[in-house]
Amino acid sequence: MARDLQNKVILITGASSGIGEATALACAEAGMRVSLVARRGDKLQGVAARVAATGHKANFFTADVCNTNDMRQAFADCWATFGRLDAVFANAGYGQIVDFLDMTEIDERAMFETNYFGTTRALRMAVPLMRQTPGGLNHLLVCSSAASEIGLPTLGVYSATKAAQDSVAGALRAELHDEGFKVTSVHPIGTKTGFMQVAGNDQNKNTPAALQQTPEKVARHIVAVLRKPKPEVWTSRMTRVGLALGTLSPRFASWAMRRHYRKLQRAMGGG
Description:
Mean pLDDT: 90
Structural class: alpha/beta
Helix content: 40-55%
Strand order of the largest sheet: 3-2-1-4-5-6-9
Number of strands: 9
Distance between the termini: 54 Å
CATH topology: Rossmann fold
Order of helices and strands: EHEHEHEHEHEEHEHEHH
CATH class: Alpha Beta
Shape: globular
CATH architecture: 3-Layer(aba) Sandwich
Number of helices: 9
């Protein structure tokens, strides 16, 4: 039986654009109240206005997921505004397209700080508030990636952060089950969000159309899993099957990644 989302509250990090923005709008259209968190206040204000146009309440708070005090204030603002918290979508993150050995340790640590520690910081702050919410959804959602299952060349550190997120989601799924919590890891494929351009190169142009999707598609999957919880959301069945085959045959996966890397090098003029 589908859960009722009317007037339930979801806090979304990285809500100023891409998957976060699309999810905020989709959740509002489903009847939810939305708390928006991101670093870009001007962008957040615009998303909040679009959410409000659906007839549902939104608040926004400018915060950096890497800053513990920022995040405490963001969750406190959500609670002060709505008096409850039903779900959190830990979505904030970024990537950097670079060969692993060419990436600096400073950049590597910064990516883990945002993608991994930003996620765990949000989850730790959400759970106590959900425990205080009567009749709540008690749903933790983590935006991992299809890359969590394999180390993508030129995105090795990004893949590592996504694998780490997925591992934490799996652990929490068992640890919080008896309290009635649901934990879902979300595994998008290449998403048309401008992520790759921000990362340093537009790698989407080298990605087959079948392995790309819109943020709105991901958002629809997230609303569906809020209604009917399940452990994982995969937005591409073909990718899921391919990665499962790669797990069964590491030699095949290694060959596929070498082939992919050579294509990238040729596309970038490196081979």
